[in-house]
Write a structure and sequence with these properties.
heterodimer, A: about 240 residues, mainly alpha, two-stranded antiparallel sheet, B: about 180 residues, Arp2/3 complex 21 kDa subunit ARPC3, 9 helices, about 80% helix, globular
């Protein structure tokens, strides 16, 4: 039972739309809990702990924000001069559920999809234009090369006594210029080679091959969208 | 006819787009860490002024290098797609944000009738996404914000976007020399 990568992308994007549209706790719990649990399962299997750390950090930042801007209502916890009130906790909870709705499906997508398979699937199943498919597959191939360039630039910066991690806008410019310069030089030659091999004559490949399981997953996403947008507002 | 040919994308343009997508995708990916740390320690306003504009540089950089209509939009959207594959803590929302940012940057160049690609145009293309993004943020994180603060964030985001948009265009100018 192989799910098409495009299907998982569509699922993640529909759930992102759900996260943007859901407004109440009830409407957010429906997609948040099952998707987040599934997402965490796949994340732990792939050992992508940084995503879980970033999620915890983001929820903490949201809680601080809520304490600053919407800390009103009945007091829930008093810690010396700090009084945590009902609305700050409620707001953090709603936003955390929204984040879970976003992160869960994206983790399922990232853990189960190889970038090259995704690009092939986008072109074949969704009709992504050949130029964009070319750009994306080249981008995937360039990531390790440019990562090597990035590390070399960082080492050179260190040897010359500059900050290793760019902080100021001028640091960022000093990093971007050599990185893009090397990349552009490579890109010109790759582009010329592709043109010489008849890139512009290549025909578009659009032969959708979705199976029953793909339709079920897309239907599942649409059902969640309908529940969140139309049904839960009626219940609450 | 000549104009159509001038606006047609070649394999070289698509290769340049790929380079921009990788560089900016990596920048987007690494921006999340200092942005979230600054947000947790110094608050959202400082984080926005300092880092938010970095998420808008895909449009100005791609457009200043390729100089064709659509480059700003594609640069931003492809970078968002690369960021999503890396993966990012912002999950699939990056595609929605990336499309909105790319569209606004593209509008910046369209307003200048695709005739100006310099630092000023880069600053405009970097600032314009700041008009829309705080509202998307409000849709996502609105419960922890007030309406008044969204307007303050909008100004901060536009300033940050303009600075980084100008930097992206100046990087492209340095490369084209």
């Amino acid at each position: 039972m192989k799910i098409r990568p495009s299907t998982l992308l569509i699922y993640a994007v529909i759930l992102a739309v759900v996260a943007f549209m859901a407004r109440t706790e009830l409407s957010l719990v429906v997609p948040a809990i099952p998707n987040f649990v599934a997402g965490i399962y796949f994340t732990l299997r792939r050992r992508l702990y940084i995503v879980i750390a970033a999620f915890v950090l983001a929820v903490w930042a949201l809680f601080l924000n809520a304490l600053f801007f919407v800390n009103y209502g009945e007091p829930i916890l008093v810690l010396g001069p700090l009084v945590i009130r009902e609305n700050a906790v409620k707001a953090t909870m709603i936003v955390a559920f929204r984040l879970m709705t976003l992160v869960g499906p994206a983790m399922i997508f990232v853990s189960n999809v190889e970038p090259r398979e995704l690009i092939k699937s986008l072109e074949r199943d969704l009709g992504l234009p050949k130029g964009l498919a070319f750009s994306l597959s080249l981008a995937v191939r360039l990531i390790p090369l440019m990562n090597r360039d990035y590390n070399e630039i960082m080492n050179i910066r260190k040897e010359r006594g500059f900050r290793r991690i760019p902080i100021t806008p001028s640091d960022i410019k000093a990093l971007l210029v050599p990185l893009v310069a090397v990349g552009i030089d490579r890109a010109y030659w790759i582009g010329i080679a592709a043109e010489l091999r008849g890139f512009s004559l290549r025909k578009r490949v659009f032969k959708p091959s979705f199976k029953l399981v793909d339709y079920i997953i897309i239907a599942l996403a649409i059902v969640q969208l309908v529940i969140v947008v139309f049904i839960t507002p009626l219940l609450s | 006819m000549a104009k159509t040919r001038m606006y047609r994308y070649t394999a070289i343009d698509f290769s340049v787009l790929a380079v921009v997508a990788v560089v900016i995708g990596i920048v987007f990916y690494f921006t999340a860490i200092p942005y979230e740390l600054t947000k947790a320690v110094a608050g959202k306003l400082v984080a926005r002024l300092g880092f938010y504009g970095l998420w808008f540089i895909g449009g100005p950089l791609a457009a200043s290098l390729i100089r064709k209509p659509g480059a700003a939009f594609l640069g931003e959207v492809l970078a968002a797609l690369v960021e999503m594959m890396l993966p990012t803590p912002y999950a699939s929302s990056v595609l929605i944000y990336g499309s909105a940012q790319g569209l606004m940057s593209e509008i910046g160049y369209a307003l200048l009738r695709y005739r100006r690609w310099g630092v000023g145009a880069g600053a405009l293309a970097g600032a314009l996404p700041g008009l829309v993004i705080p509202f998307l943020d409000y849709a996502l994180w609105g419960e922890t914000l007030t309406e008044a603060i969204v307007w303050v964030y909008m100004v901060a985001t536009m300033i940050s976007g303009a600075i980084y948009g100008a930097i992206a265009a100046s990087v492209a100018r340095a490369l084209r020399k």
